[in-house]
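Practice problem: predict the structure.
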Amino acid sequence: MPEATSTNPINVVRESAYPLTGAAADYNPLMNLIGDAHFVLIGEASHGTHEFYEQRAEITKRLIQQKGFTAVAVEADWPDAYRVNLYVQHINDDPTPAEALADFQRFPAWMWRNTDVLHFVNWLREYNDDLPRNAARAGFYGLDLYSMYASIEAVLNYLNRVDPEAAQRARYRYSCFEHFDEDTQHYGYAAGFGLTPSCEQGALEQLQELQRRSAEYIQKGGRLAADEYFYAEQNARLVKNAEAYYRSMLQGRVSSWNIRDRHMAETLDQLVAHLSHQQGKPAKVVVWEHNSHLGDARATDMGKIGEVSVGQLVRERYGRDAVLIGFSTYTGTVTAASDWGETPELKVVRPALPDSYEALFHETGRPRFLLQLRDDNRAISFLRKKRLERAIGVIYLPETERISHYFYACLPEQFDAVIHIDDTRAVQPLDRTAYQEMKEPPETFPFAV
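Answer:
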Protein backbone atom coordinates (compact mmCIF):
# COMPACT_ATOMS: atom_id res chain seq x y z
CA MET A 1 0.00 0.00 0.00
CA PRO A 2 1.45 3.43 -0.88
CA GLU A 3 2.74 5.48 2.03
CA ALA A 4 0.29 8.28 1.18
CA THR A 5 -2.64 6.11 2.25
CA SER A 6 -1.32 6.00 5.82
CA THR A 7 -1.28 9.78 6.19
CA ASN A 8 -3.88 11.15 3.77
CA PRO A 9 -7.43 11.02 5.18
CA ILE A 10 -8.95 11.34 1.71
CA ASN A 11 -7.19 8.22 0.46
CA VAL A 12 -7.91 6.27 3.61
CA VAL A 13 -11.64 7.08 3.48
CA ARG A 14 -11.76 6.28 -0.23
CA GLU A 15 -10.17 2.87 0.32
CA SER A 16 -12.28 2.09 3.41
CA ALA A 17 -15.63 3.06 1.89
CA TYR A 18 -18.09 0.67 0.30
CA PRO A 19 -19.38 2.16 -2.98
CA LEU A 20 -23.15 2.31 -3.37
CA THR A 21 -23.95 1.43 -6.96
CA GLY A 22 -27.63 0.55 -6.73
CA ALA A 23 -26.95 -3.20 -6.59
CA ALA A 24 -28.87 -5.40 -4.15
CA ALA A 25 -25.64 -6.35 -2.39
CA ASP A 26 -24.61 -2.74 -1.64
CA TYR A 27 -25.89 -2.84 1.92
CA ASN A 28 -24.63 -6.31 2.81
CA PRO A 29 -21.77 -4.80 4.85
CA LEU A 30 -24.28 -2.69 6.77
CA MET A 31 -26.49 -5.71 7.41
CA ASN A 32 -23.44 -7.55 8.74
CA LEU A 33 -22.62 -4.59 11.00
CA ILE A 34 -26.20 -4.57 12.33
CA GLY A 35 -26.11 -8.29 13.00
CA ASP A 36 -28.66 -9.20 15.69
CA ALA A 37 -29.12 -5.65 17.02
CA HIS A 38 -32.65 -4.77 18.12
CA PHE A 39 -32.40 -1.03 17.45
CA VAL A 40 -31.33 0.57 14.19
CA LEU A 41 -31.47 4.37 14.21
CA ILE A 42 -31.28 5.87 10.71
CA GLY A 43 -30.76 9.60 10.46
CA GLU A 44 -30.86 12.29 7.80
CA ALA A 45 -28.81 15.45 7.31
CA SER A 46 -31.91 17.40 6.30
CA HIS A 47 -35.68 17.08 6.56
CA GLY A 48 -36.15 17.61 2.83
CA THR A 49 -33.80 15.34 0.84
CA HIS A 50 -35.17 12.61 -1.41
CA GLU A 51 -32.18 10.29 -1.21
CA PHE A 52 -32.19 10.19 2.59
CA TYR A 53 -35.83 9.06 2.64
CA GLU A 54 -35.31 6.67 -0.24
CA GLN A 55 -32.22 4.97 1.14
CA ARG A 56 -33.44 4.58 4.70
CA ALA A 57 -36.68 3.11 3.32
CA GLU A 58 -34.65 0.54 1.38
CA ILE A 59 -32.55 -0.31 4.43
CA THR A 60 -35.70 -0.59 6.55
CA LYS A 61 -37.33 -2.96 4.06
CA ARG A 62 -34.35 -5.29 4.37
CA LEU A 63 -34.45 -5.10 8.16
CA ILE A 64 -38.14 -6.01 8.15
CA GLN A 65 -37.81 -8.80 5.60
CA GLN A 66 -34.49 -10.31 6.67
CA LYS A 67 -34.01 -9.49 10.35
CA GLY A 68 -37.49 -9.52 11.84
CA PHE A 69 -37.99 -5.83 12.59
CA THR A 70 -41.65 -5.08 13.28
CA ALA A 71 -41.82 -1.34 13.92
CA VAL A 72 -40.75 1.92 12.30
CA ALA A 73 -40.70 4.80 14.81
CA VAL A 74 -40.32 8.26 13.32
CA GLU A 75 -39.84 11.93 14.26
CA ALA A 76 -43.56 12.64 13.96
CA ASP A 77 -46.50 13.25 16.25
CA TRP A 78 -47.97 10.15 17.87
CA PRO A 79 -51.64 10.61 16.79
CA ASP A 80 -50.78 11.49 13.17
CA ALA A 81 -48.45 8.53 12.76
CA TYR A 82 -50.86 6.15 14.49
CA ARG A 83 -53.40 6.70 11.73
CA VAL A 84 -50.73 5.45 9.31
CA ASN A 85 -50.09 2.50 11.62
CA LEU A 86 -53.76 1.53 11.51
CA TYR A 87 -53.66 1.74 7.71
CA VAL A 88 -50.54 -0.39 7.20
CA GLN A 89 -51.95 -2.99 9.60
CA HIS A 90 -55.30 -2.98 7.75
CA ILE A 91 -57.28 -1.80 10.80
CA ASN A 92 -58.84 1.50 9.70
CA ASP A 93 -60.87 2.37 6.60
CA ASP A 94 -58.43 4.68 4.81
CA PRO A 95 -58.52 3.59 1.15
CA THR A 96 -55.06 4.83 0.12
CA PRO A 97 -51.69 5.73 1.63
CA ALA A 98 -52.33 9.39 0.81
CA GLU A 99 -55.50 9.31 2.94
CA ALA A 100 -53.60 7.60 5.75
CA LEU A 101 -51.10 10.48 5.74
CA ALA A 102 -53.84 13.12 5.79
CA ASP A 103 -53.45 14.00 9.49
CA PHE A 104 -49.99 15.45 8.84
CA GLN A 105 -51.21 19.03 8.46
CA ARG A 106 -49.01 20.87 10.95
CA PHE A 107 -45.92 22.61 9.60
CA PRO A 108 -43.70 21.02 8.29
CA ALA A 109 -46.19 18.72 6.58
CA TRP A 110 -43.78 17.78 3.79
CA MET A 111 -41.60 15.84 6.24
CA TRP A 112 -44.15 13.03 6.07
CA ARG A 113 -46.52 14.06 3.30
CA ASN A 114 -44.07 13.40 0.48
CA THR A 115 -43.80 10.86 -2.32
CA ASP A 116 -41.03 8.83 -0.68
CA VAL A 117 -43.02 8.26 2.51
CA LEU A 118 -46.12 7.55 0.42
CA HIS A 119 -44.29 4.78 -1.44
CA PHE A 120 -42.90 3.32 1.79
CA VAL A 121 -46.30 3.33 3.51
CA ASN A 122 -47.75 1.58 0.46
CA TRP A 123 -44.98 -1.02 0.66
CA LEU A 124 -45.64 -1.60 4.38
CA ARG A 125 -49.33 -2.18 3.71
CA GLU A 126 -48.61 -4.67 0.91
CA TYR A 127 -45.96 -6.44 2.98
CA ASN A 128 -48.36 -6.88 5.89
CA ASP A 129 -51.16 -8.03 3.62
CA ASP A 130 -48.95 -10.87 2.34
CA LEU A 131 -48.07 -12.18 5.81
CA PRO A 132 -49.66 -15.29 7.34
CA ARG A 133 -52.67 -14.47 9.48
CA ASN A 134 -51.00 -14.79 12.88
CA ALA A 135 -47.64 -13.26 11.94
CA ALA A 136 -46.49 -10.03 13.60
CA ARG A 137 -47.20 -7.15 11.27
CA ALA A 138 -44.87 -4.20 10.83
CA GLY A 139 -46.17 -0.97 12.37
CA PHE A 140 -45.54 2.76 11.95
CA TYR A 141 -45.35 4.99 15.04
CA GLY A 142 -44.56 8.60 15.99
CA LEU A 143 -42.19 9.60 18.78
CA ASP A 144 -42.64 13.39 18.96
CA LEU A 145 -44.65 15.54 21.38
CA TYR A 146 -46.02 18.56 19.53
CA SER A 147 -49.58 17.19 19.39
CA MET A 148 -50.71 18.16 22.90
CA TYR A 149 -54.28 19.17 22.01
CA ALA A 150 -54.78 16.33 19.53
CA SER A 151 -53.59 13.90 22.20
CA ILE A 152 -56.01 15.36 24.75
CA GLU A 153 -58.82 14.75 22.30
CA ALA A 154 -57.62 11.19 21.70
CA VAL A 155 -57.61 10.40 25.43
CA LEU A 156 -61.12 11.78 25.83
CA ASN A 157 -62.41 9.86 22.82
CA TYR A 158 -60.96 6.63 24.18
CA LEU A 159 -62.46 7.10 27.64
CA ASN A 160 -65.83 8.10 26.19
CA ARG A 161 -65.94 4.61 24.63
CA VAL A 162 -64.64 2.50 27.52
CA ASP A 163 -65.46 4.49 30.68
CA PRO A 164 -67.70 7.57 30.40
CA GLU A 165 -67.29 8.42 34.09
CA ALA A 166 -63.51 8.43 33.73
CA ALA A 167 -63.94 10.60 30.65
CA GLN A 168 -65.70 13.19 32.78
CA ARG A 169 -62.80 13.27 35.21
CA ALA A 170 -60.33 13.56 32.35
CA ARG A 171 -62.33 16.39 30.81
CA TYR A 172 -62.18 18.27 34.10
CA ARG A 173 -58.41 17.77 34.45
CA TYR A 174 -57.73 18.85 30.88
CA SER A 175 -60.08 21.84 31.10
CA CYS A 176 -57.07 23.74 32.47
CA PHE A 177 -55.80 23.91 28.86
CA GLU A 178 -59.04 25.25 27.39
CA HIS A 179 -58.30 28.93 27.99
CA PHE A 180 -55.54 29.13 25.39
CA ASP A 181 -57.43 28.38 22.15
CA GLU A 182 -55.06 25.47 21.41
CA ASP A 183 -52.14 27.92 21.35
CA THR A 184 -49.39 25.98 23.07
CA GLN A 185 -46.97 28.90 23.04
CA HIS A 186 -49.54 31.06 24.83
CA TYR A 187 -49.95 28.36 27.46
CA GLY A 188 -46.17 27.99 27.89
CA TYR A 189 -45.64 31.71 28.38
CA ALA A 190 -48.58 32.13 30.76
CA ALA A 191 -47.64 29.14 32.91
CA GLY A 192 -43.92 29.87 32.72
CA PHE A 193 -44.35 33.45 33.92
CA GLY A 194 -46.85 32.42 36.59
CA LEU A 195 -49.68 34.36 34.93
CA THR A 196 -51.90 31.28 35.10
CA PRO A 197 -51.78 28.07 37.16
CA SER A 198 -49.78 25.28 35.58
CA CYS A 199 -51.74 22.33 34.16
CA GLU A 200 -48.95 19.97 35.18
CA GLN A 201 -50.76 18.25 38.05
CA GLY A 202 -53.92 17.49 36.08
CA ALA A 203 -51.93 16.02 33.17
CA LEU A 204 -49.94 13.83 35.57
CA GLU A 205 -53.05 12.66 37.44
CA GLN A 206 -54.75 11.69 34.20
CA LEU A 207 -51.81 9.55 33.09
CA GLN A 208 -51.64 7.90 36.51
CA GLU A 209 -55.35 7.06 36.54
CA LEU A 210 -55.12 5.48 33.10
CA GLN A 211 -52.17 3.40 34.24
CA ARG A 212 -53.94 2.26 37.44
CA ARG A 213 -56.89 1.01 35.42
CA SER A 214 -54.92 -0.55 32.56
CA ALA A 215 -55.81 -4.16 33.41
CA GLU A 216 -59.51 -3.30 33.67
CA TYR A 217 -59.56 -1.59 30.27
CA ILE A 218 -57.44 -4.21 28.49
CA GLN A 219 -59.61 -7.07 29.79
CA LYS A 220 -62.51 -5.65 27.83
CA GLY A 221 -61.23 -7.56 24.82
CA GLY A 222 -58.15 -9.12 23.26
CA ARG A 223 -55.21 -7.71 21.40
CA LEU A 224 -57.10 -4.83 19.81
CA ALA A 225 -58.15 -3.63 23.28
CA ALA A 226 -54.52 -3.74 24.40
CA ASP A 227 -53.48 -1.71 21.37
CA GLU A 228 -56.24 0.83 21.94
CA TYR A 229 -55.28 1.20 25.59
CA PHE A 230 -51.60 1.62 24.70
CA TYR A 231 -52.50 4.31 22.16
CA ALA A 232 -54.52 6.20 24.79
CA GLU A 233 -51.88 5.79 27.49
CA GLN A 234 -49.18 7.13 25.19
CA ASN A 235 -51.36 10.13 24.33
CA ALA A 236 -51.78 10.83 28.05
CA ARG A 237 -48.02 10.52 28.55
CA LEU A 238 -47.51 12.90 25.64
CA VAL A 239 -49.82 15.50 27.19
CA LYS A 240 -47.84 15.36 30.44
CA ASN A 241 -44.49 15.71 28.68
CA ALA A 242 -45.70 18.31 26.17
CA GLU A 243 -47.00 20.46 29.01
CA ALA A 244 -43.54 20.41 30.57
CA TYR A 245 -41.94 21.05 27.18
CA TYR A 246 -43.95 24.17 26.37
CA ARG A 247 -43.57 25.50 29.89
CA SER A 248 -39.79 24.99 29.66
CA MET A 249 -39.34 26.99 26.46
CA LEU A 250 -38.78 30.14 28.54
CA GLN A 251 -35.82 28.42 30.18
CA GLY A 252 -33.96 28.14 26.89
CA ARG A 253 -33.11 25.67 24.15
CA VAL A 254 -31.22 23.15 26.27
CA SER A 255 -34.08 22.52 28.69
CA SER A 256 -36.79 22.16 26.04
CA TRP A 257 -34.56 20.15 23.68
CA ASN A 258 -33.79 17.66 26.45
CA ILE A 259 -37.43 17.28 27.45
CA ARG A 260 -38.30 16.55 23.83
CA ASP A 261 -35.52 14.01 23.20
CA ARG A 262 -36.11 12.30 26.54
CA HIS A 263 -39.79 12.03 25.63
CA MET A 264 -38.91 10.42 22.29
CA ALA A 265 -36.56 7.95 23.99
CA GLU A 266 -39.19 7.18 26.63
CA THR A 267 -41.82 6.63 23.93
CA LEU A 268 -39.44 4.24 22.16
CA ASP A 269 -38.95 2.27 25.39
CA GLN A 270 -42.69 2.06 25.97
CA LEU A 271 -43.29 0.96 22.38
CA VAL A 272 -40.67 -1.76 22.65
CA ALA A 273 -42.17 -3.03 25.91
CA HIS A 274 -45.67 -3.11 24.39
CA LEU A 275 -44.63 -4.88 21.20
CA SER A 276 -42.37 -7.34 23.03
CA HIS A 277 -45.25 -8.33 25.29
CA GLN A 278 -47.54 -8.83 22.30
CA GLN A 279 -45.04 -10.78 20.23
CA GLY A 280 -43.67 -12.89 23.08
CA LYS A 281 -40.07 -11.93 22.25
CA PRO A 282 -37.94 -8.75 22.25
CA ALA A 283 -39.18 -6.42 19.53
CA LYS A 284 -36.87 -4.93 16.92
CA VAL A 285 -37.42 -1.28 15.97
CA VAL A 286 -36.10 1.01 13.24
CA VAL A 287 -36.04 4.72 14.15
CA TRP A 288 -36.11 7.53 11.58
CA GLU A 289 -35.09 10.98 12.80
CA HIS A 290 -32.68 13.79 11.99
CA ASN A 291 -28.95 13.19 12.52
CA SER A 292 -29.08 15.75 15.35
CA HIS A 293 -31.46 13.50 17.29
CA LEU A 294 -30.05 10.10 16.35
CA GLY A 295 -26.36 10.83 16.59
CA ASP A 296 -24.72 10.59 20.00
CA ALA A 297 -24.83 14.17 21.37
CA ARG A 298 -21.75 13.51 23.52
CA ALA A 299 -19.66 13.56 20.32
CA THR A 300 -20.87 17.02 19.25
CA ASP A 301 -21.09 20.65 20.33
CA MET A 302 -24.60 19.80 21.55
CA GLY A 303 -23.16 17.69 24.34
CA LYS A 304 -20.84 20.49 25.43
CA ILE A 305 -23.78 22.74 26.27
CA GLY A 306 -25.66 19.99 28.09
CA GLU A 307 -28.00 18.69 25.39
CA VAL A 308 -28.77 15.00 25.14
CA SER A 309 -30.07 13.10 22.13
CA VAL A 310 -32.19 10.07 21.40
CA GLY A 311 -29.11 8.31 20.01
CA GLN A 312 -27.15 8.97 23.20
CA LEU A 313 -30.00 7.80 25.45
CA VAL A 314 -30.54 4.63 23.42
CA ARG A 315 -26.82 3.85 23.47
CA GLU A 316 -26.66 4.39 27.22
CA ARG A 317 -29.50 1.95 27.76
CA TYR A 318 -28.89 -0.68 25.07
CA GLY A 319 -25.17 -0.41 24.26
CA ARG A 320 -24.10 -2.28 21.11
CA ASP A 321 -27.64 -3.59 20.69
CA ALA A 322 -28.23 -0.22 19.00
CA VAL A 323 -26.71 0.82 15.67
CA LEU A 324 -26.63 4.53 14.78
CA ILE A 325 -26.47 5.45 11.07
CA GLY A 326 -25.96 8.99 9.79
CA PHE A 327 -26.31 10.57 6.35
CA SER A 328 -24.41 13.41 4.69
CA THR A 329 -24.40 15.31 1.41
CA TYR A 330 -22.08 17.81 -0.24
CA THR A 331 -24.45 19.75 -2.50
CA GLY A 332 -27.75 19.56 -4.41
CA THR A 333 -31.26 20.77 -3.67
CA VAL A 334 -33.53 20.52 -0.64
CA THR A 335 -37.15 21.22 0.27
CA ALA A 336 -37.11 23.71 3.14
CA ALA A 337 -38.67 26.95 4.33
CA SER A 338 -37.00 30.30 5.02
CA ASP A 339 -38.83 30.77 8.32
CA TRP A 340 -41.08 28.78 10.63
CA GLY A 341 -44.54 28.33 9.16
CA GLU A 342 -43.64 29.66 5.70
CA THR A 343 -44.30 27.86 2.43
CA PRO A 344 -41.60 25.32 1.54
CA GLU A 345 -39.30 26.14 -1.33
CA LEU A 346 -36.93 24.27 -3.60
CA LYS A 347 -33.56 25.53 -2.35
CA VAL A 348 -30.02 25.00 -3.64
CA VAL A 349 -27.71 23.42 -1.06
CA ARG A 350 -24.38 25.21 -1.13
CA PRO A 351 -21.21 23.12 -1.47
CA ALA A 352 -20.08 22.10 2.00
CA LEU A 353 -17.57 24.29 3.84
CA PRO A 354 -13.88 23.38 3.95
CA ASP A 355 -12.82 21.48 7.09
CA SER A 356 -16.17 19.69 7.14
CA TYR A 357 -16.76 15.95 6.94
CA GLU A 358 -18.91 16.59 3.88
CA ALA A 359 -16.04 18.34 2.06
CA LEU A 360 -13.66 15.52 2.99
CA PHE A 361 -16.07 12.93 1.63
CA HIS A 362 -16.54 14.96 -1.55
CA GLU A 363 -12.77 14.92 -2.11
CA THR A 364 -12.79 11.10 -2.28
CA GLY A 365 -14.44 11.35 -5.69
CA ARG A 366 -16.94 8.65 -4.77
CA PRO A 367 -20.52 9.78 -5.54
CA ARG A 368 -22.15 7.45 -3.00
CA PHE A 369 -20.64 5.27 -0.32
CA LEU A 370 -21.10 3.56 3.03
CA LEU A 371 -18.44 4.03 5.68
CA GLN A 372 -18.39 1.82 8.77
CA LEU A 373 -17.21 3.50 11.95
CA ARG A 374 -16.91 0.55 14.32
CA ASP A 375 -13.97 -1.56 15.37
CA ASP A 376 -11.24 -2.27 12.81
CA ASN A 377 -11.93 0.26 10.04
CA ARG A 378 -8.61 2.09 9.66
CA ALA A 379 -10.38 5.28 8.54
CA ILE A 380 -11.68 5.80 12.07
CA SER A 381 -8.41 7.15 13.45
CA PHE A 382 -8.27 9.72 10.63
CA LEU A 383 -11.82 10.90 11.32
CA ARG A 384 -11.48 11.38 15.08
CA LYS A 385 -10.26 14.94 14.67
CA LYS A 386 -13.37 17.06 15.13
CA ARG A 387 -14.67 18.63 11.95
CA LEU A 388 -17.62 20.70 10.94
CA GLU A 389 -20.84 18.84 10.19
CA ARG A 390 -23.91 20.31 8.49
CA ALA A 391 -27.48 20.05 9.77
CA ILE A 392 -30.37 21.31 7.65
CA GLY A 393 -33.77 21.04 9.29
CA VAL A 394 -37.06 22.31 7.91
CA ILE A 395 -35.49 25.78 7.67
CA TYR A 396 -32.49 26.41 5.43
CA LEU A 397 -30.69 29.75 5.43
CA PRO A 398 -27.76 29.53 2.99
CA GLU A 399 -26.68 33.12 3.66
CA THR A 400 -25.99 32.35 7.35
CA GLU A 401 -25.03 28.73 6.84
CA ARG A 402 -21.86 28.64 8.97
CA ILE A 403 -23.70 29.97 12.03
CA SER A 404 -27.11 28.39 11.58
CA HIS A 405 -26.34 24.98 10.07
CA TYR A 406 -22.87 23.79 11.16
CA PHE A 407 -21.47 22.40 14.39
CA TYR A 408 -18.35 20.47 15.35
CA ALA A 409 -18.55 16.71 15.79
CA CYS A 410 -16.39 13.60 16.12
CA LEU A 411 -18.06 11.38 13.54
CA PRO A 412 -16.75 7.95 14.71
CA GLU A 413 -18.15 8.62 18.19
CA GLN A 414 -21.39 10.08 16.87
CA PHE A 415 -22.39 7.21 14.56
CA ASP A 416 -21.63 3.55 13.93
CA ALA A 417 -21.85 4.09 10.17
CA VAL A 418 -22.38 6.98 7.78
CA ILE A 419 -23.79 7.05 4.26
CA HIS A 420 -22.58 9.86 2.03
CA ILE A 421 -24.44 10.88 -1.13
CA ASP A 422 -22.48 13.66 -2.76
CA ASP A 423 -25.20 15.28 -4.88
CA THR A 424 -28.77 15.04 -3.62
CA ARG A 425 -32.14 16.39 -4.68
CA ALA A 426 -35.17 17.74 -2.87
CA VAL A 427 -37.98 15.58 -1.59
CA GLN A 428 -41.27 16.03 -3.47
CA PRO A 429 -44.18 17.15 -1.22
CA LEU A 430 -47.63 15.71 -1.85
CA ASP A 431 -49.18 19.15 -1.36
CA ARG A 432 -48.57 22.05 -3.71
CA THR A 433 -50.39 24.65 -1.63
CA ALA A 434 -49.12 26.79 1.22
CA TYR A 435 -48.60 24.94 4.47
CA GLN A 436 -50.66 25.57 7.56
CA GLU A 437 -48.74 27.85 9.91
CA MET A 438 -47.93 26.64 13.38
CA LYS A 439 -48.30 29.25 16.09
CA GLU A 440 -44.92 28.88 17.77
CA PRO A 441 -41.31 28.49 16.63
CA PRO A 442 -39.56 25.37 17.89
CA GLU A 443 -36.75 25.35 20.39
CA THR A 444 -34.57 24.12 17.51
CA PHE A 445 -34.83 27.40 15.55
CA PRO A 446 -33.08 28.05 13.20
CA PHE A 447 -32.06 24.40 12.71
CA ALA A 448 -35.70 23.29 13.12
CA VAL A 449 -34.77 19.65 13.54
